[in-house]
Structures are given as C-alpha cells and as structure tokens.
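Re: beginner question about structure tokens

> Can someone show what the tokenized structure looks like for a real chain? I only ever see the sequence side.

Sure, here's an example I had lying around. Input first:
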Amino acid sequence: MAKQVPGGPTVMRLILGRQLQALREKAGLSHEQAADAIYTSAWTIRRMEKAEVGLKLNYVKSLLLAYGITDVREIDAFLDLAREANKPGWWHSYADVLPSWFRVFPGLEQAAELIRGYEPHCVPGLLQTEDYAHALTIAGYPDALAEETSRRVAVRMARQQILTRPDPPQLWEVIDETVLRRLAGSPAVMRGQLTRLIEAAGTPNITLQVLPFAAGPHPAMYGMFHLLRFPAAELPDIVYGENMTSAFYLDKPHEVAAYAQALDRLSTRAAPADKTVKILREIRKEY
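And the corresponding structure tokens:
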C-alpha cells in the first residue's frame, strides 16, 4: 500500500493524502462517513487528503481501520511514512516571514524534476540575485523591519540551492520583456541581475526565453504561474500561481493541461532560447 518515495516531507504528505483518498473511495465512504468513523469533521478529512494539514497518527490509524486495512504491518508502514511526512522542511524555520499559502511551495519546488514557468512581473525567485531580491522585498513589504526583510531574502536565496545540487531539476522559464526593463533597486542592481541571468542561460539544466513586447497579447496574461513535475509516479503535475494575498495549487488534469498548453504557446512566441544571451546583453547595456 504505502511505500517510501523521493521528494521530502511535502511530497510524502501529498502522496499519503492521495492514498487515503483512494482507500476511502475504494471503501465506498463519503467524506462525511469517514469523518463520523473517527469523530471529526468532513472538512478535516478533505484537508488531510489534500495535504493541507499534518497527518495526526491516531486519525490515520483509525481511518485505515475504517477503510478495511487490518494488516498490522501495513498500518505500521503507513504510520512510519506519516511520521516522516510530518517532519518540517528547512523552510519552516522561516515560518515567521512566510505567508501560510506559500509554505507548501518550497517543498514542491525541492521535489520537482521539472519546473516550467512564466513570469510577467519580476525575475523568477530561483534566479534572483540577493540585491534584486532585497529591492523587491522592500517594495513588497515597505513597513517590515530590517530583520524581517533580511529573513525573506535569505529564504529566497536558500531555495536556489536546488539548482546546484547533484540532481538539479530542469528549469524552463519564459520571462516577459517588461521584467527586464522594470528598474528594481538601481541600475547597478539590474546590471547584476542581468549578468546572473546570462550566466544561468549557459547552465545545462536551465532554459530561459524572453517574451518580447512584439509578441502582443497571449494566453497567459493573467499573471505568473509555474508547472511542476515530479519523479514520484503517484504525484500528478501541479500548477502553482499567486497574487498579493493568496496562491492556488491545481492538479486536476484538465486544469494542468490548460496551463501546459499556455506554456507551449508562450514558448513558441518567445525568442528562441539560443537568442536569450544576446537579448540579455543588449538590455544590460541600457543600465
């Protein structure tokens, strides 16, 4: 039933949640009936299945029994994985400066084997320089204390370590030309940021494309989003997007397909990846 999978606690919790859902459905129970079996609410069952909360071991054990799982070894194995899934990721030490809706994303990012995204407003977080990230953070949180600003920048820099680990994900970003021409901090900060992007474009696991103004209207004009793919077969592709006060996580096949199609169209309308460095160098001269 349950087995060890790569990807860290976030992905483990997602997979276990999906397995609990599959077991509930196989047992023919609704959320309400499952909740009644363990004296909790249907809302709690839904949140467990969506990995929005930690997996309370007594709840998990009672649910497994309610779903007809009576083999002690199977139950113990599931509970062992639940314990692993409940361990906090490194980013939880920054919980004081991370919005609640963002706290799942670093774990997904860390576990992904492919990250594709479109950024119309700023350089993707995984490719930001410290100075650029600092300028954005001050703009986004103008009333924050200096220590809070430093911690927000620190967690963004820490996220970037996935790009230089032994098994880095493939990162493919389409960046709107507006991003490269919007001054953040100072001209010197922008020069440094563009240099960072030029270096990144020469990295084997990173593909960068610039979507020029001339591309005109396109199917992804609603805002930033990223599509993440994982090596764990049990986990579907997930689309992540955010606005000022919240984020969304989508995994329904038809929704993910719509975003994947938008990325494909953006990629064909953007300048070819082999032209990226030339474009970045030309824009850098303007600073």
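Each token stands for a local structural state, so reading them left to right follows the chain. The radius of gyration is 21 Å.
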